């Protein structure tokens, strides 16, 4: 009885452990990494989902004068700073702390099938921006030749009326639409037919050789049928395509003036009186 209870407890423990792995950390259950972004409009969630492969990766790039280095992360802590979507690092001041110029708590996403513009907003002043807010816009374009390109700094504008604007560009294949199949319906039918023919020939050959024990040409599946295919096709063509009937039509024969040997009148001549 104790052995049965021990076995039951062990089975329950194994099932509980397997269920925990699936629900908590198993590879079967996929998580949406872009859910960390807080969007201004719920309709932007569909656009943001296109960037799922880029989530929680740091992308960095330098300004044109190389005074600043910018680090961007999609729906994650850029440079390890909580809540920061884009940070600015002063290259001249090595000991200076990174400056937040955009947070993913205020996110806006617009785009189409091959491009997305992501906007992070930060409602505080910081070192290089004298306005009450700053915006970081990341333009992400489709490029099938690269997985993820470096972050390109397009513009640093701190003279706008209401906020500072930082414009970036990133090329990635993640926003590229799926390629449509170039195979036509006829090509697909031919491929399926070729696969079925291959299975028929290989499977039939193995069956004839291993199960039936055939040798030589007899190993070919349905050999007797395929040998007669030519004759059957010829007979069918002759029957369908030719208009001449197979039986000879009796032709007209003229009456001969001389009696033939088998003429019954000659055989009755001996009965006439002399």
From TrEMBL:
Q: Name one GO cellular component term.
A: endosome
Q: Which GO terms describe its biological process?
A: protein targeting to lysosome
Q: Where in the cell is it found?
A: Endomembrane system
Q: May I ask which residue range the UniProt record assigns to the signal sequence?
A: 1-30
Query: The organism sits in which domain of life?
Result: Eukaryota
Q: Which regions span the lipid bilayer?
A: 183-207
Keyword Translocase listed: no
Q: Which UniProt keywords apply?
A: Disulfide bond, Glycoprotein, Membrane, Receptor, Signal, Transmembrane, Transmembrane helix, Transport
Against Gene3D superfamilies, the record matches this protein to: Mannose-6-phosphate receptor binding domain
Q: Which residues form the MRH domain?
A: 35-178
Task: Please report the name of this protein according to its UniProt entry.
Answer: Cation-dependent mannose-6-phosphate receptor
Q: Which organism is it from?
A: Takifugu flavidus
